[in-house]
Structure formats: structure tokens, C-alpha cells
Amino acid sequence: GLARGGRNPPNSTALPLALLGRRIAGAGPRLKQQLAELVGVIREEIRRLDALVGDFLFFSRTSRIQLQDVDLDALVDEVTRLLRPEARSAGVTLRRQRAGAAIPTLRADPEKLKQVVINLVRNAIEAMPDGGAVVLESGLQDGQAVIAVRDNGPGLPERVDIFQLFVTTKPKGTGLGLAIAQQIVLAHGGEITASSEPGKGATFEVALPLNPDRAAEQAGGGQET
Questions:
Q1: In the Cβ-directed half-sphere of 132, how many Cα atoms lie within 13 Å?
Q2: Most confidently modeled of 17-21, 29-33, 217-221?
Q3: pLDDT at 222 over 50
């Protein structure tokens, strides 16, 4: 299958690289440095390809959602607790806020939605290498469950559809993260939007219907069997 065939090529290069590393050890100082740099480049490229394959495999599975009763506010609380240490170590303050009434229990795929929120918060943290603040909000607004991630970083690039595949503004990103997030939200019959002011940060907002069974069917997501 794709998982087996896709994962093997990057991993199968690990042994030859290790052997090459041992051979380099016996080379002269100048050649050793040049070869070591080359091996470093190859390793980094393999890491990137491996991440890309992993993203593709996840992307191919995102439309199949498994619906169950979910407390979305509690899910966002959990992501806040999970990522707060990561944010702190990056010099970023992660704040949790309610925006609107408490969200009633709704039908959704908690693992996939958790992945969306984690992805958005991590993107916000990584957009601020010099530190900053991220606010994670959730609440009932206009009859929909809304989750918002706001940062005070540099903002989003203009005239670029950041939800398209392979659009990335991060040096080590594969550019699939936001496309995957959008795919998951659409499969729930929801919508994800981004807004930004240059130099004043970005906001990503996920709006989900309260009865996604019907909305997901209309969006072509359906329930996994």
C-alpha cells in the first residue's frame, strides 16, 4: 500500500548514510568537512520528504470522519493545557478565553478537530520567533460553534491563498498543515477563515454547525464505516 511504499524510500537511505558517515571519518580534514556538510543536507532533505509523505497519508484520510458527542469547549481547554509549555518555551503567552455562550454538545470527530486546533496554535507560535501572545477562544456565536486562534505576530502574506497545498511561509514547513485543517473542517460541514493586518497579527476562525451529521453529508464527508 501507499503507507508501506511511501515510507520505505526515506528510511532505506538511513543505512547507506550511516556507512558513508563511517567512511568520512577516515578522510582528510577538508574532505571530511565537505562530505559532512553534504550528508547534513541529505539528512535534512530526507526529513522533509518523510514529513511530506506523512502529511499526504494524513491528508488522504481526513475526509473520513468518525462522529461522536463532543464537548468542544473542553477540547479547546485540553489543547491549551497541552500546548502551554511549548508556547512558554518559545516565549509566547497562550491565553484561553470564552467568546460567546458555552457550546452545547455536538457531533464531531474529536481527534481530528483537536489536530486542527493544535495545528493553528502551533502555526501562530511559529509565526512569532521573537515571542508574543496567542489567544485561543471558543463559544457559541450566531448559532454556530466557533473556535478562534489570534496572534500578535507579523500577519499573513498578502494575496496568497494560505489554504492551498504547498503554500508555506515557514522555513521547515511542508505547506500541508492548513490544507489538512481546512479539509477536516469542511468534512464537518464547517468553514475556516483567516484574517490579518500586516504587523498586527492574524486570526484563524473555525465555525462548525451544531448538527454536523446533515452538514457533513452535504459536504461529502460522511461517517466512516
A1: 22
A2: 29-33
A3: no
Phi-psi region at 82: left, alpha or beta (left = phi > 0; alpha = psi -120 to 50): alpha
C-alpha–C-alpha distance, residues 107 and 213, integer Å: 7
Q: 200-220 as b/e, with b when 16 or more CB fall inside 10 Å?
A: ebbbbbbbbbeebbebbeebe
Beta strands in the chain (DSSP E): 68-70, 92-98, 106-108, 132-141, 144-151, 191-196, 202-209
27-50 pLDDT tens trace? 788 888 878 787 777 877 777 777
- Give the whole-angstrom CA distance, residue 186 versus residue 218: 10
**Is residue 221 a contact partner of residue 184, using CB atoms and an 8 Å limit?**
no
Intra-chain end-to-end CA distance of the chain, in Å: 20
What are the helix (H) ranges across 105-146? Answer: 110-126
Rg (CA), the chain: 21
- Identify whether the C-beta of residue 124 lies closer than 8 Å to the C-beta of residue 202: yes
Distance of CA 174 to the CA centre of its chain: 10
- Each residue of 62-78: pLDDT tens digit? 557 888 999 999 999 99
- Paired with 76 in beta bridges are none
What was the pLDDT predicted at 216? 47
- List pLDDT tens digits, range 188-206: 999 999 998 877 899 999 9
CA distance 54 to 112: 15
d(CA 198, CA 27): 51
User: Would you state the cell numbers that stand for residue 215, as one nine-digit string?
Assistant: 452538514
